[in-house]
Amino acid sequence: MPDTAAIRSWHRTLPHSPQAVPLARALVREALAGPDQDTAELLTAELVANAVEHTEGCGPIELYVELLASHCQVEVLDGDPAPPGDLSSPVPLEAPDPLAEGGRGLLLIRALAAACGHRPTDWGKAVWFRLAAPAAPAVPLPRHPETTPPRTTPAGA
Fold first, then answer.
1. pLDDT tens, position by position, for the chain (157 residues)?
2. C-alpha 89, offset from chain centre
3. Burial track 102-125 (b if 16+ CB lie within 10 A, e otherwise)
């Protein structure tokens, strides 16, 4: 059972409109810091944009961000029960049209997330991705006594 004290979570109800995307990015930016922040923002924006574009505007979009010691998970819930596409395949079923404005969101999620998927909910579906928690920062090794310190003056001076 996970240590609930180590879990931090955020939730926001977003409007079913294009304004949901910057609101979602702001929540992720506020919740996460570190090397995966940009990736989390990008993937969250893709999920929220898909929820706005591909579902009927009949209800809000829910955004959940959960941060644990082992990973960060972002989940977007909407009122449409239809699956979002194939999130389990590591390669696209079809190459996206290079001239098309869309069609790359799920490809980005599959490529950059440690895991992703979707599940049904009582009123629609939840689409999620997970990013692995960053490794602990490297600790510099102590200097061995026999190591020669770097020169601070030019040779022959």
1. 555 556 789 999 999 999 999 999 999 998 887 778 899 999 999 999 999 998 877 689 999 999 988 889 999 999 999 888 777 665 555 666 666 566 667 888 988 999 999 999 998 999 999 998 754 433 344 444 443 344 444 445 5
2. 18
3. eeebbbebbebbeebbbeeeeebb
